[in-house]
């Protein structure tokens, strides 16, 4: 059994112009420990595995630039190519009247307004030619070890439904099996909870598994990438070393666009500056993932993700009291950076406990995950 420790790091940097210094608890894997994978779909290992708890200084990303201001923002502003993430002020149609916070829980409105507006923003920031939304994940509960994700689309931790229950949830099931996926929108299982464990959703091998196995339409959208990778593999080449320079397939990346639905007063998202992590900080782990988009199919596949050890040089960022018009663009994988770093353009992140906020209402947030192709 691991021993929980709480340590104040020595990095007490603040963002330019900030008079406040923030601290929050982040949970890491203790040195020398090999974490045990969770038996639950989409879930990281149990909290008991994250025994190294650190009270970490947090750098505030205010002021948050707009998409047009970001290229000329002051030196030190977080950017995808350097930090692995960026903060952007991005108002959308649903941020204004007549729409309300509840509008964000309407799949029809999200398809009509939010998805196309966000895809256009990602194109503007990254230069990608095509952006394909794969899923929207709604988080609206206090953290629990096993939440709505485990029972998504009838997979995993869910008893067999009666015929009447299946009819009542047929619309929700269609959304959960469709493309893009709507996760955490089920009226029966509710929203998901924050993820208070330092992680990166996809190691490079996990990203490649993801585009093949997440959903048949995802594999179709990534078909040029998959063909090029299979060609290289058939010739004994290394995808990490040779894909970007081969010219056989397009550059591709995975991103998460994280937006609160109300001002964040607890469990904000903290992001690690990718330049400040050691290769030895990354801890691989398997996440059990259902095969989605295939009616009646209840099989799963293993996706490789990263957890992390703490090290003294790490720098962590967040947005203080983040508002619904402010989004975080989070790198999860970039084929052009696969040969550079173990994280391949992705950044470690976690919800973070701010001392004194335990009695605040649950944080509500929406993550749009997408595939970008150049």
UniProtKB/TrEMBL annotation:
GO terms assigned for molecular function: oxidoreductase activity
Biased composition (Low complexity): 1-15
InterPro entries recorded: AsaB-like (IPR044053)
Spans annotated as Disordered: 1-24
Family from the record: Belongs to the asaB hydroxylase/desaturase family.
UniProt xrefs under PANTHER family: BLL6449 PROTEIN, OXIDOREDUCTASE AN1597
Protein name: GA4 desaturase
Organism of derivation: Exophiala bonariae
């Amino acid at each position: 059994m691991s021993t929980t420790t709480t340590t104040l790091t020595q990095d007490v940097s603040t963002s330019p112009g900030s008079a406040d210094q923030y601290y929050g608890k982040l949970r890491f894997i203790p040195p020398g420990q090999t974490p045990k994978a969770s038996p639950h779909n989409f879930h990281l290992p149990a909290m008991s595995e994250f025994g190294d708890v650190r009270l970490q200084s947090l750098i505030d990303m205010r002021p948050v630039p707009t998409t047009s201001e970001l290229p000329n923002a002051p030196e030190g502003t977080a950017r995808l190519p350097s930090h692995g993430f960026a903060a952007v002020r991005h108002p959308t149609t649903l941020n204004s009247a007549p729409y309300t916070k509840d509008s964000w829980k309407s799949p029809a409105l999200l398809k009509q307004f939010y998805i196309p507006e966000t895809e256009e923003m990602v194109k503007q920031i990254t230069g990608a030619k095509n952006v394909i939304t794969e899923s929207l994940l709604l988080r609206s509960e206090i953290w629990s070890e096993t939440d709505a994700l485990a029972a998504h689309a009838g997979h995993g931790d869910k008893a067999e439904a009666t015929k009447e229950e299946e009819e009542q949830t047929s619309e929700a099931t269609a959304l959960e099996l469709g493309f893009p996926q709507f996760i955490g929108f089920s009226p029966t299982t509710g929203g998901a909870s924050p993820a208070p464990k330092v992680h990166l959703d996809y190691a490079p091998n996990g990203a490649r598994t993801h585009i093949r196995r997440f959903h048949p339409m995802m594999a179709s959208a990534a078909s040029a990438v998959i063909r090029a990778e299979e060609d290289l593999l058939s010739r004994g080449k290394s995808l990490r070393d040779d894909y970007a320079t081969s010219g056989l397939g397009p550059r591709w990346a995975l991103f998460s666009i994280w937006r609160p639905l109300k001002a964040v007063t607890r469990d904000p998202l903290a992001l690690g500056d990718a330049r400040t992590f050691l290769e030895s900080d990354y801890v691989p782990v398997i996440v059990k993932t259902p095969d989605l988009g295939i009616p009646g199919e209840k099989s799963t596949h293993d996706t490789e993700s990263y957890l992390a050890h703490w090290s003294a040089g790490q720098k962590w960022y967040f947005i203080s009291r983040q508002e619904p018009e402010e989004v975080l663009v989070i790198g999860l994988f970039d084929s052009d950076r696969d040969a550079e770093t173990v994280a391949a353009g992705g950044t470690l992140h976690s919800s973070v406990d701010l001392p004194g906020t335990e009695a605040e209402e649950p944080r509500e947030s929406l993550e749009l995950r997408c595939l970008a192709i150049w």
